Amino acid sequence: MINLEDIGLKFLHYFDPENAHGLSIQALKLGLAPLHGGPVTSPRLTTSIGGIALANPVGLAAGYDKNAQALSPLSKAGFSFLEVGAATPLPQAGNPKPRLFRLLQDHAVINRFGFNNQGIEAIARRLAQTSTSIPRGLNLGANKDSADRANDFGDVLNVAAPHIDFATVNISSPNTEKLRDLQGKAALEDLLGRIKATNAKLVRPIPIFLKIAPDLTDAEIQDIADLALACRTVCDHLHQHDIGPRRATLF
Ligand SMILES: Cc1cc2nc3c(=O)[nH]c(=O)nc-3n(C[C@H](O)[C@H](O)[C@H](O)COP(=O)(O)O)c2cc1C
Fold first, then answer.
1. Are residues 138 and 25 located together in one domain of the fold?
2. Given ligand 1 and candidates 153, 173, 182, which is best to mutate, with the most ligand atoms within 8 Å of its CB?
3. What is the dihedral angle through the alpha carbons of 176, 178, 183, 187, rounded to the nearest 10 degrees?
4. How far apart are CA 111 and CA 197, in angstroms?
5. Hey, whose CA ends up nearest to atom 23 of ligand 1?
6. Which of 12, 24, 58, 64 maximizes ligand 1 atoms within 8 Å of its Cβ, making it the mutation to test the pocket?
7. Both 142 and 19 in a single domain?
8. CB 3.0–4.6 Å: which of 43, 100, 217, 224 could bond 17 by disulfide?
């Protein structure tokens, strides 16, 4: 039997992947996508991460609703939390197109967007205007041309903090040149110190997660874990799944 989801997917595959992505956001906004009505839950699914109570362990990863355009419908899609962004201080266009590629056999895509987004002012405005019944967070990014990328993360956090329940420092992306250099020991120590100081000064400090690349060596992961522990409070390793990016709750 063919269901609505299969028909929707077939329709979207007529379009170039990035246009299909945009169309799916429009469909959500127009109420054309079938939705669950709220987070899927049962007593066996409830959990808590970094002090945030969740109805189930599955949330929407950063990169789908980069500009926080479909928060309301997405909060009814079954997820227990939403992560919007990555947001950078200034709007930026991202990498040249094409930059999203379907791997049909693998049911996957390759993404080389490069933090295209409308900038934190526009994104924070939408977050402020939309309340959701499930926790929402922001993926913090840095502008490609920034003279001080570490500073960008704090700037974005400052603007968005009143409207979000958590934030993620994203140094995992291979699509912004040299971003992953921030995973090096000295650079990361500086970055985490600055983010921690920014967070501590907020009226309402929020849980901060660190998103690192999935292909680091064990030694590199150990260094990052040591730093996270040194810089903080809690350090839970959250493996999304075997090949997914890894996260640590920082403070
Ligand atoms: C089109 C696309 C855009 C993405 N953009 C971001 C982003 O802006 N920030 C980020 O931290 N991760 C981004 N990601 C990575 C996802 O958040 C997620 O970590 C990744 O897809 C791995 O999870 P999965 O194996 O469940 O897909 C993006 C992924 C895709 C496919």
1. no
2. 173
3. -120
4. 32
5. 244
6. 64
7. no
8. 100
